Structure formats: structure tokens, C-alpha cells
Amino acid sequence: MSTVLERSAAFASRARELTPGGVHSNVRLSAPSIFFERGEGAWLYDVDGRDYVDYLLGQGPNFLGHAPARVNDAVAAEARRGSVFGANHVLENEAGELFLDTVGWAERVRFGVTGTESDQAALRLARAATGRTKFVRFAGTYHGWLDNVLMTMVDGKPAPGSAGQLPHGIAESYVLAFNDAAALEATLAEHDDIAAVIVEPVMFNNGAIPPAEGFLAEVRRLCDAHGVVLIFDEVITGFRVALGGAAERFGVRPDLAVYGKAMAGGWPVSALAGSAELMDLFAGGVVHAGTFNGSVPACAAVIASLRALREDPPYERLEAYGASLMRSIVEIGGDHGLPLRAQGLPMAFHVSFGDPAPVRDYAGLAGLDLDRYAAFSHTLADHGVWVAGRGIWYVSAAHADKELAATLERFAAAAAQAGA
Ligand code: PLP
Fold this sequence. Notes:
- This protein has a seven-stranded mixed β-sheet with strand order 4-12-11-10-9-5-8, sandwiched between helices. Strands 1-2-3-15 form a four-stranded mixed β-sheet.
- The longest helix is centred in the C-terminal third of the chain and has 21 residues, at 315-335.
- The protein is globular, with a radius of gyration of 21 Å.
- It has twelve helices and 16 strands.
- It folds into two domains: 6-64 and 314-419, Aspartate Aminotransferase, domain 1 (Alpha-Beta Complex), CATH 3.90.1150.10; 69-311, 3-Layer(aba) Sandwich (Aspartate Aminotransferase, domain 2), CATH 3.40.640.10.
- α7 links the parallel β10 and β11.
- It has helices spanning 6-18, 69-79, 91-103, 115-130, 181-190, 215-226, 245-250, 276-279, 296-311, 315-335, 370-382, 401-419, and strands at 36-40, 43-46, 51-54, 108-112, 134-138, 151-154, 157-160, 173-176, 194-199, 229-233, 256-259, 270-274, 340-345, 348-353, 385-386, 392-394.
- It is of the alpha/beta class.
- 37% of the residues lie in helices and 17% in strands.
- Residues 59, 114-116, 119, 142-144, 200, 205, 233, 235-236, 260, 270 line the site of pyridoxal-5'-phosphate.
- Pyridoxal-5'-phosphate binds next to α4.
């Protein structure tokens, strides 16, 4: 049972009169009804004067911590000179050069605003390049909320993820189990209408499941063998699991990759990157548009964020912090009789209740008690640790010793309550 915070409760009650469910994204419907007024570094501050160590990071974008001064100062300074021109401006080239140099493998980039739309651009490009219509994806990955990608599994079969979704949307894809290269081989051999394979290189959206040894390389090989475009959805992994994202960390190059979240210090920017051959189709009949693409604040945010990550790479610190936190969560759980488990990478991992053995695919998550964890996430909020109810924990460059100590103390108090 969540603590009732008076001012938050008043805000929440008014919010329900203004917007459906009181939230502007369905993902937030099951979160505690707490209203924040400020974020700084790894901390959030609510309207009732309480503080929280934040591991939601706005669902991932605040990789540099909240309100990073370098990024926000750059955005504010540039915004004084205008924000969106619907025409070229001087920051675009600097942002594009820095982006491509940082990613390492791609030759062209198109900026967008959300991962959802850049994923659609990637799929359209793959269809245009191959003249085929369908794509392969993996159960449990998330590629945005639109009709052809929003999906859930019912009794082991793909089903629309929303009422009102076009029923033929999900028929655009063949849905396979993550980490099952043999199934991909069979599917590509059987069907000649496949334009693309789209994959979250680490399946962070369900269980933070890492790719099995050699899986991504095998996906690459099979795509090459069948003339299929390989799309990495790096919206979570990009700039987070390594400076060059999953492509760098796992040593596999996609044909196209979609980025978002960590690339712009908390500002709404996404990107589609890839080979010149594919990407230049956008200048030859494939449409990709967006009023706010490559806006002045977006470019300023990308430039400042990528410079910050290149000049002071946080990756080693994140590895140490996250590994220690994952270990402690399991240990503290054990101290209080809670079968807590953690898997993933130190900079983003999944916590739930259940058997500690690693889960390899979406079906494996059925053995975990995800509902119990969702309830525990509210207990954590009561004790000043802000996490997603679906289990993912994001660590930022702003998490340091003080935050770790505060987290462990608060986590232990929450575990004592839940285990009592
Ligand atoms: N792809 C992945 C892997 C994501 O995690 C998300 C969002 O969480 C998206 C795409 C969609 O991005 P956005 O919410 O910016 O539309």
C-alpha cells in the first residue's frame, strides 16, 4: 500500500480530470501517483518535499543524470537564436558529424524525435530497398506503439497489444523467440517476402535479456545470406552499453540502426543511421519527414551530450556501480527472505522475483513473479527509490557513492517491509 502524499494526491486527482488516466503515456498508468517538481543528477524531488534516488531516468533518456548543466546551457543558448526553421541550419552538420563519428560504423544519419517514428522509417527503408513487405521481430521486444509493431503474446502466439489496433498490423511480422538463431534460419529459408530483421540487441524491454554468445553474429550472417536488411533497435542500447552502442559492444554491424533516449541528455531526439546506399534512398523516393527533425535544440542537445560522453566516458564507472548494485539487491533480498534476482548489463538491468537462473527469451519470463515485483516497486517508491514497475533499472553517469549508499539503505528498508 503506497503512502498517500497529500499534494501529489491533489495533483493526481486534478490530472484525472484533464487527461485519460491522469497520465500522458499509458506506460505510466500503473506507476505510483506521485508528482515531481524537480530532477537533479540521480535525484528526483516530489511536490510533498520527498527525494528519490532515480533508476527510471525518464525511461532511459537521462543517461547523464537529470538537468545536465552542459547540455541544458547549450540548448538554452542556441534556443535564443531560434528553435525550428523547417530549413537547414548550421548545427545540423556538427551534430551529424559527431553522431556518425561516435557511432563508428554508419555513413548517414537522419534525426527524428521519437524512437517509434525512426523505427517506422527504418522498416520503410528496408521495404523500399528489398521490394519485400514483411519483417522478422522477436517476442518481447518493443519497437514503438504503432499498429505494425505493438504486440503482445497470448498463449504463445502474437496478438495485438491494444484495442483499436489494425488487425493486419501484426501480420506484417514473423515473430520468433529471442536468441533462437535456428528459428530465424528456418523462417528466412521458408519465406521470400522478408525485408528486414529488427532486433533489440539486448532485449531490455522484457527481462533485460542479453544476446546469447554468437547470436547477433549469426543473425548478421543469415541476413546477408538472404539479402535481408538487419536493423538494430538501439533506442535503449545506443550510447549506453558502450559509446558506440550494442554494435560496438557485441562487435556486429547492422545495416540500419535506430537510436533515441541516451543520445541527447534528456531531450526528445531520435536518429536512424546506416549505410549511404540504404539511407540515400530517402533522397530518391522514400519519404521520411517531421517538422521537428533536426531542430536547433535537438542538435544542440546531441552535440553537448555526445561531447560529454566522449570527453568523460562513464562506462567503466557504470559497470562498477551497476554490478555492485545488482549484487546488493540480490543479497539484501536474501537477508529478508525475498527471492530477488537481477539480470542484464550493469548500466541497465532487470529485477524481479524468482529463480536466479538466467532467462533467455520472453517465454522464460513466465517463470518469474513480475506482478510481485510491480507491487514491490511501489514499496520502493515509499522508501525513496524510484524504479519502473516492469523491472528495468537504469543507471546514469550521475550515480556515485552517495547514491549507492542511499539506495542500499532505502532498498533494505523496503525489503524489510515487504519481507515482514
Ligand atoms: N525501441 C525501443 C527499443 C524502445 O525501448 C522504445 C521506447 O521505449 C522505442 C523503440 C520507442 O521509442 P519512443 O518511446 O521514443 O517512441
